[in-house]
Amino acid sequence: MGVVYRKSQTGWVVITIFGSVSIFLFLAFVNQWGSKPLPLTPFLVLELFFVGLGFLFYKLTVELGESTLRLTYGIGLIRITFEMDQLLETEIISTPWYYGLGIRITPKGMLYNIQGSKAIKIDYMRKDKKKSVMVGTPEPGRLKKALEDSSREQG
User: Fold this and answer.
1) DSSP state string for 76-90
2) How many domains does the chain have?
3) Residues 140, 85: one domain?
4) Which structural domain range is residue 138 located in?
5) Among 8, 80, 91, 102, whose Cα sits 20 to 30 Å from the Cα of 59?
6) What are residue 71's DSSP bridge partners?
7) Which residues share a beta bridge with 38?
């Protein structure tokens, strides 16, 4: 069958934060700000670190196949795949701001998001074990419907 649902979302907060830090480091190095200016090696290490994090987390792509939910962050080095034998329940939820962005452990389980406060909580079975995951999305209604439609077609 192929891809049932696919949506990419840009993490503007991540881009803004890591971009700003990177620009500040560059300006601090070039202009030699402060009484102890930033030497070349620490500048390069910090710059590569923040630029690298930016490329790893600047977007999140959610892709739903027949029985597989795939999450891909940034340039694609971070990929998470959930194989679902049976969909049990889906619920649209709001995540509080203090749950943060990225890949997070929360009191309600794992959360994968990149922006906003809307997510979908997915309860499913995999190899006779109940599992749960929360996925941030700008269109929780469409993802919920795609999951439920895909589950009906399998069952």
Assistant:
1) TTEEEEEE-SEEEEE
2) 2
3) yes
4) 5-9+62-154
5) 91
6) 62, 80
7) none
Q: Are residues 109 and 123 in the same domain?
A: yes
The pLDDT of 57-62, averaged and rounded, is 96
- Residues in the chain, total: 155
Q: Does residue 106 sit in the same domain as residue 139?
A: yes
**Residues 39, 76: one domain?**
no
For residue 110, give the nearest of 94, 122, 92, 124 by alpha carbon.
Answer: 122
pLDDT digits (tens, 9 = 90+) for 86-143: 999 999 999 999 998 999 999 989 999 999 899 999 999 999 999 999 999 999 999 9
Do 51 and 114 share a domain, yes or no?
A: no
Residue type, 10: T
Can you read off the two tokens belonging to residue 18? 């890591």
Yes or no: say if 136 and 122 are a contact pair by the CB < 8 Å rule: no
Q: Are 25 and 47 in contact (CB under 8 A)?
A: yes
Q: At 1, is the pLDDT very low, low, confident or very high (cuts 50, 70, 90)? A: low
1, 85, 116 from 9: Cα distances, Å: 24, 27, 10
